[in-house]
Amino acid sequence: MPIRVAIFNVSMEGTNYVVLEQAVKGNELSQHLQARNHPQIKNIAEIIQRIRPDVILLNEFDYSPQSSLDIQHFIKNYLQVSQSENPIIDFPYFFAGPVNTGVDSGLDLDGDGNASGIRGDAFGFGLYPGHYGMAVLSKFPIQTQQIRTFQYFLWKDMPNNLLETVKNEDGSDYYSEQAQQILRLSSKSHWDVPIKVGNQSLHILSSHPTPPVFDGYEDRNGKRNHDEIRFWTDYISGSESSAYIYDDKGQRGGLLGEHFIVAGDLNASPVEGSAMPSGISGLINHPRINDTMSPKSEGGRTHSPDNINGAEHTAGWRMRVDYVLPSSSLKVANSGVFWPTQDDPLHHLIKDRQSSSDHKLVWVDVDMSK
Questions:
Q1: Residue 250, by phi and psi: left (phi above 0), alpha (psi -120 to 50) or beta?
Q2: H helix or E strand, kind and range, residue 206
Q3: pLDDT tens for residues 294-329?
Q4: pTM, whole model, 2 decimals?
Q5: CA–CA separation, 309 vs 109, rounded Å?
Q6: How far apart, in whole angstroms, are the C-alpha atoms of residue 368 and residue 370?
Q7: CATH superfamily of 3-367
Q8: Which end of the chain has less Cβ packing within 10 Å, N or C?
């Protein structure tokens, strides 16, 4: 029987609820999850209830030391409450971990003369630790002891990395030697979260690379985005390509398993936008990836009627950036993007970021019995 795996950048982060200056405490999400009545979160829950995934990665779900409680509140107060008379949905298993956003690097990384500890001087852009975090929710047991996280993996330790090419116009290094020694690859984190489905494991390879914009001539974000995506390409490519990788517990090497899904808002398209196309193209076209049934929607097509790729778009700003990429060991039964057209009664759920998110939920049905 197919299982449905989804990714949804839910915009459940502090600056979506208060003005920028007030979001520095990072507790806005917790307050709304306890209050049970925030309209944007109710719409997020309704979308999930309608699509009914078995496993879902939430991007931009703020992380904090009380994230387990936050996720429980989201499940109990929103997902287990019928939204617009839809059947409730439950996820007995979940995982959330720390991310690099808002974590003080101790250095002036963005070159503004002030080592602020936040925004561009953090290991990942953010106003507080855990900003723009992630969470995996599952109906199937998560093999907790086998989870691998790569929050601390250093960018410099990736062979042929693009960190070495981050240069100013005069050819000098954008990052100081000290910065190059401590910079982490992941702007949030990379996670390998194995899910137990029957007697098999399905590895949910989760991440949220930095947007390849908001920089300058040096293209530091574009190059980091490329290498964050390339990490997964190497991770699934076998021992020779993945030997350099080490996780946060010191275990070396890449994927140990047959079935996987690369999931996340990867902030890159091979045909549109500012990303270096070789990063995302290398992943999509990898022989261990099955992208034969790329998710599509009528809403995306009508949103960009003059764009040949419009049906594959997953964000309101007209690009495919959110991915659920199954391994070639899996048979894809169906896929889609939740994007109702403007004349659909459900369009109010996705019309803008305040309604739910500027991204759409993307899902794929896979059969592990192939």
A1: left
A2: strand 200-207
A3: 999 999 999 999 999 999 999 999 999 999 999 999
A4: 0.97
A5: 36
A6: 6
A7: Endonuclease/exonuclease/phosphatase (3.60.10.10)
A8: N
